[in-house]
Specification:
The chain is an alpha/beta fold. The protein is built from 17 helices and 29 strands. The structure holds alpha-D-galactopyranose.
């Protein structure tokens, strides 16, 4: 348990000079083709098992594993005393087998000695409850003490393994903010105040932004400000919003601090951390994180209760591509079968693991990785599936693991190709935070459900969608959907208007444009920021009770939220046909220069939304990836970089989520089977085909 010489000697690449900004590699170094592997936790196993692990990884075609994510207590069992030998051995063995390593900073779970001697690093809930050690992630990122220890461990790892030949990628901490997105401790209060001072400059500006004339909340100095700790009633909404912004920024600040050490010591190795982009992760504004990641990496798990979990998976993958700015990304974790942390955990059915994995690839992932390599026999995750299950290699899961490795090898030509979309949905974390604040017309609104509902309509029609942040350049899209964008800045709203003016069909849905970025209502009628574009003015919101619905004049129904909307340049496309707003417009349309702007002031049912989407697609001229996509089948195209004549390789992913064989128009060769597709490809029940198309895309 003492220090010894580094496992590998520094090479010429070694330097202590920071690399020039932006020059860091953007992909795990030395990984050929698509990356395949998972979290590998060798510290849970004896040597004989670790030897077998490497043999089996080779059998499965694994070429990248994430190591040492939760190893701090094993690497530094006592303060300042290090035990590197086991990890040296693991890395050397992996290297000997040609397997590359995404090495963690090992900081994701502080060792018990650290929280014993420094309980001041423990996080606190809004009511003052301290979250103790014994699980994981028991730290507050705002703690200078935690920061110092985490930086020290990170530097040790970088100095020890920075020149190890297996090192391909740095993995900073793990799922930052997963268990503790918000910390309300005194350290957090101090950091929040610093953040506010940087944002507002003066306390007067903070008072104005927070509207503190209300309820005697005026602050005389920043020192009086607190995080929104448990209070007798609703905390100031802008305080809540800014605390969410601060918390996301503070986690990112922690990432940056650790990353900067890695860049200083190992400028030849890219750095990332695993995000949790999905409809379930609310509190990290990943659009604002991605510029700091050399390559975007994401973890995604299916929601067992959702019969269309594969649609939510597709949504998350498209959103990850949006966060990555369209660049290839790493699927850092998903599951081979059941997880262990949902109320009822479902094992995956026939072909589901392959379909899930290749759906991520179809939507831009160039790496498929799992939690975890070998299923644990002890600890809180022993019932979580793995690539190598408890029951061993004579299992369907293991056969799936080997088959997926083969499939990914066959798909090597796909690497680096990109997805193109004519339709975009605007997605915004701040609008999510704002829309779900307390003291609103309804507490029943769930932002991701609203976005997912429109996404689902497009998924079922085989339409590829980009998920983009507000403020993105929307001018190339034919259809732009802006669901429930409760708060929006003037500039971002102008981008939406510009898209309509440039010829797009734009749909804005209820509870949009109401507030500015300080959560102040834009007076004069809703939907504030979009009133002029849409040619409407809502006088009053009529939220509906649980189970209550109204009828719309095309026979559809609507629930949750209705609006008393005046026409101010738009025409009414649908009107309410029952309830207190009978006769008032429910859906409107306005012609805007070259495009159109539609507004739907309520939550339409499936029938209503479906009819509306058909109209919008017809008007916008947006087509599915191939004609006549069969129900339950996912079709996505990735295109390679264009050659000088404009042609590019193209890959058609056809994922069959149904229990019947399907045929889809395609011409080329199925990379998974080697079979030629002359006019169509037949995809077996629950199967996948990836056709390298004969006619290159242009
Ligand atoms: C997250 C974590 C992993 C593991 C998995 C289980 O993604 O990063 O360490 O806990 O969840 O699904």
């Amino acid at each position: 348990m003492t220090e010894h010489a580094p496992a590998a000697q520094p090479t010429a690449a070694a330097t202590t000079q920071p690399a020039p900004a932006g020059s860091w590699p953007r992909w795990p170094v030395g990984v050929e083709g698509l990356a395949y592997g998972g979290d590998y936790n060798p510290e849970q196993w004896p040597l004989a098992t670790r030897v077998e692990d490497v043999e089996l990884m080779r059998e499965a075609g694994v070429n990248l594993v994430s190591v040492a994510i939760f190893s701090w207590a094993m690497l530094e069992p006592r303060e300042g005393e290090y035990d590197w030998e086991w990890l040296d051995d693991v890395l050397d063995r992996l290297h000997g087998a040609g397997i590359r390593v995404a090495l963690a900073t090992a900081t994701a779970s502080p060792p018990p000695w650290l929280t014993r001697y420094h309980p001041e690093i423990l996080p606190e809930l809004a009511d003052g409850t301290v979250l103790h050690q014994g699980g994981r992630q028991a730290y507050r990122v705002s703690s200078p003490v935690l920061r110092e220890y985490a930086l020290r461990m990170t530097r040790r790892m970088a100095e020890r393994y920075g020149q190890h030949p297996a090192l391909a990628l740095w993995h900073v901490d793990n799922e930052l903010g997963c268990h503790v997105p918000h910390d309300f401790s005194d350290d957090a209060a101090a950091a929040f105040r610093r953040w506010l001072e940087a944002r507002y400059g003066t306390v007067d500006a903070l008072n104005a932004a927070w509207g503190t004339a209300f309820w005697s909340q005026r602050y005389d100095s920043f020192d009086e400000v607190l995080p929104p700790r448990t209070a007798p009633t609703f905390a100031n909404p802008t305080q809540q919003l800014d605390f969410a912004r601060y918390s996301s920024d503070e986690l990112l600040t922690h990432y940056r601090a650790l990353r900067d050490v890695l860049r200083e010591v190992t400028p030849h190795v890219p750095t990332t951390t695993n995000l949790m982009v999905s409809t379930g992760t609310k509190w990290m504004d990943y659009f604002s994180w991605s510029a700091d990641l050399d390559v975007v990496a994401n973890d995604h798990y299916l929601r067992a209760h959702d019969p269309e979990g594969h649609v939510e998976l597709a949504f998350s993958a498209d959103l990850t591509r949006g966060v990555a700015g369209g660049a290839p990304w790493i699927l850092m974790e998903h599951s081979t079968s059941a997880v262990n942390w949902q109320p009822r955990n479902r094992a995956k059915g026939p072909g589901e693991m392959l379909r899930n994995s290749l759906a991520h690839v179809a939507r831009g992932a160039d790496a498929v990785m799992f939690f975890q390599w070998r299923q644990s026999v002890a600890g809180a995750e022993k019932f979580h599936s793995a690539m190598l299950p408890h029951a061993g290699t004579d299992t369907q899961v293991w056969r799936n693991t080997v088959a997926l490795g083969e499939a990914l090898r066959a798909l090597a030509p796909v690497r680096g190709s990109r997805v193109h979309a004519d339709a975009a949905i605007v997605f915004d974390y701040e609008a999510w935070w704002g829309a779900e604040l307390d003291s609103h017309p309804t507490q029943a609104l769930r932002y991701p459900n609203e976005v997912l509902a429109w996404y689902r309509q497009l998924w079922h029609r085989g339409i590829t969608v980009d998920l983009v942040r507000p403020g993105a350049d929307l001018s190339a899209y034919r259809l732009v959907v802006v669901p429930t964008l409760y708060l929006v800045s003037d500039d971002d709203a102008a981008r939406v208007s510009a898209a309509a003016e440039a010829g797009a069909t734009v749909l804005v849905t209820y509870c949009s444009g109401i507030a500015d970025e300080n959560d102040h209502v834009r007076a004069g009628g809703y939907p504030g920021a979009f009133r002029e574009l849409l040619g409407v003015r809502t006088e009053e919101i009529w939220a509906l009770q649980d189970g209550e619905h109204v009828v719309v004049d095309d026979g559809a129904t609507a629930d949750l939220w209705t609006e008393q909307t005046h026409l101010a340049g738009a025409e009414a496309v649908r009107r309410y046909a029952s309830g207190p707003l009978t006769g008032w417009p429910a859906v409107t349309r306005r012609e805007v220069s070259a495009g159109t702007a539609w507004y739907v002031g309520t939550r339409l049912d499936e029938l209503g939304a479906s009819r509306l989407v058909d109209e919008l697609l017809g008007e916008a001229g947006v087509l599915p990836v191939v004609p006549a996509v069969p129900a339950g089948v996912e079709v996505v195209r990735r295109r390679g970089e264009a050659a000088s004549d404009g042609s590019a390789a193209s890959f058609l992913f056809v994922i069959n989520h149904t229990d019947a064989d399907v045929a889809v128009a395609a011409e080329g060769v199925d990379l998974l089977t080697g079979a030629a597709a002359d006019t169509e490809v037949t995809v077996p029940a629950f199967g996948v085909a990836v056709v390298q198309e004969t006619a290159p895309a242009r």
